[in-house]
């Protein structure tokens, strides 16, 4: 098991601008055949982030859009984009976001 730490800057002209968001990436021995587990530390309040901090994103799910050819920069850019453009069709936890 390998564990990396990464920082994602908030996108310009977004709610997240000016912030730097830490996360851990955990790789199993099966990487790149299986995606890394990406987790915000500390946890972000976001529709696509579980209470544990784990990111809910299709490219991080081997049963959905994961491809072994995805690079770490592509994964981090995908997460940065998700921060600004939540996927309402795939919430990590639906109940807290229902008005």
Describe the protein.
The protein contains one helix and three strands; from the N terminus they run E-E-E-H. The protein is of the alpha+beta class and 99 residues long. It has a single domain, classed as Ubiquitin Conjugating Enzyme (Roll). It has a three-stranded antiparallel sheet, covered by helices on one side. The mean pLDDT is 93.
List the keywords.
99 residues, alpha+beta, Ubiquitin Conjugating Enzyme, 1 helix, globular, Ub_conjugating_enzyme, UBC core domain-containing protein
CATH homologous superfamily identity: Ubiquitin Conjugating Enzyme
Strand ordering within the main sheet: 1-2-3
Sum up the overall morphology in one term: globular
Radius of gyration over all CA atoms, rounded? 13 Å
CATH topology: Ubiquitin Conjugating Enzyme
- Counting DSSP E segments of at least 2 residues, the number of strands comes to 3
In short:
By secondary structure, this protein is an alpha+beta fold. The chain has one helix at residues 72-84; strands at 2-9, 20-27, 37-40.
Write the layout of secondary structure elements.
Elements (H helix, E strand, L loop, with lengths): L1 E8 L10 E8 L9 E4 L31 H13 L15
Antiparallel strand pairs: 1-2, 2-3
């Amino acid at each position: 098991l390998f564990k990396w730490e990464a920082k994602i800057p908030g996108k310009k002209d977004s709610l997240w601008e000016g912030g730097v968001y830490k996360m851990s990436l955990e790789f199993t021995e099966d990487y790149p055949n299986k995606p890394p587990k990406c987790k915000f530390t500390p946890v972000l309040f976001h529709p696509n982030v579980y209470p544990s901090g784990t990111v809910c994103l299709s490219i991080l799910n081997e049963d959905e859009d994961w491809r072994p050819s995805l690079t770490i920069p592509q994964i981090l850019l995908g997460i940065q984009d998700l921060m600004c453009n939540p996927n309402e069709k795939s919430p990590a936890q639906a109940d807290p976001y229902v008005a």
